[in-house]
Amino acid sequence: MTGRHRDGQPYASVYQRVWDGPARAEAERLDQVWSDWTVLYSLGKRSFYAVASWDGPQLVVVEDATSEGLEERMQEAEMVRLLQAAPTPRGGEERPPAEPREQGPARRRRPGGRAA
User: Fold this and answer.
1) Does residue 36 sit within a domain?
2) Cα–Cα distance, 18 to 6 (Å, whole number)
3) Whole-prediction pTM value?
């Protein structure tokens, strides 16, 4: 951007400062690497934010002051999502499938419904 500050003076270039350029560039890089997330950098808070784009009952937003910390929080959120989606076996413990029982000799029934 050019402008004249005083009459008769040559045009001067005005420096446009890009606030937190490296942090904003890092947010853009993370946004491209993490396809299930939208990554932003807040100039006001000087912090990174990520919003999950997967379907779910609640909006998932994580925040951290560093890009490395944000990636850790994103991984934690994805792990929680996977654990919540996994089916829980009955009784809280894993059981092997039941094996078929051997058939013993058939018991005859009396006309009254009692076994002989």
Assistant:
1) yes
2) 26
3) 0.60
